[in-house]
Amino acid sequence: NLVANALQTRAWFPDLRDGQDVFLGVLPLSHSYGLTACLNLAFLSGSTVILKPTLDIGKLLKTVRRYQPTVFPGIPVLYAAINEIPDVRDYRISSVKICISGASSLPVEVQEAFEKLTKGRLVEGYGLT
């Protein structure tokens, strides 16, 4: 099931560049969503993974500025919080091109604001653990 989940998630992102993307993993790997989106999908695509298990927005944005991740699986409340940071563009958030949202429903206004901010794609996933 874990490999199938990673392959299914991979199908949603034809722009994922095997061996070139950088994943920012902030989700707990003890949960199937975090394991699939942050780790297994990255391994499947031969990508670099930055594991930063924190939801502290300040630390997260410093990591974005330093490593410029291109893939950022998260949760709606995290994307909403990032949207509200006044100087968020100073952290080079535009490096993020592919996002997967899970754990709860993603409000359309949060999705649209985050996509406008990053010029990337934020897809809402659904699953049951």
Structural features, described:
With 129 residues, the protein is α/β, with parallel strands linked by helices. The chain has a single domain, classed as Rossmann fold. The protein is 41% helix and 12% strand. The protein contains 5 helices and 4 strands, in the order αβαβααβαβ. The strands form 2 sheets. A two-stranded parallel sheet has the order 1-2. A two-stranded parallel ribbon has the order 3-4. α1 crosses α2 (32-44) and α4 packs across α5 (108-118). The radius of gyration is 13 Å and the shape is globular. It starts with a helix and ends in a 5-residue tail after the last strand. The model has no long low-confidence stretch (mean pLDDT 92).
From the structure above, extract its key features.
129 residues; alpha/beta; Rossmann fold; two-stranded parallel ribbon; 5 helices
What layout of secondary structure does this protein have?
Elements (H helix, E strand, L loop, with lengths): L1 H10 L10 E4 L6 H13 L3 E4 L5 H11 L8 H8 L14 E4 L6 H11 L2 E4 L5
Parallel strand pairs: 1-2, 3-4
Summarize the structure.
The protein is of the alpha/beta class and 129 residues long. It is built from five helices and four strands.
- Class inferred from helices and paired strands: alpha/beta
* Assigned CATH architecture: 3-Layer(aba) Sandwich
Q: How many independent structural domains? A: 1
Largest sheet: 2 strands, parallel
Number of helices: 5
Give the SSE order as H and E letters. Answer: HEHEHHEHE
Q: How do the strands of the widest beta sheet line up side by side? A: 1-2
Bin the strand percentage.
Answer: 5-15%
Low-confidence stretches: none
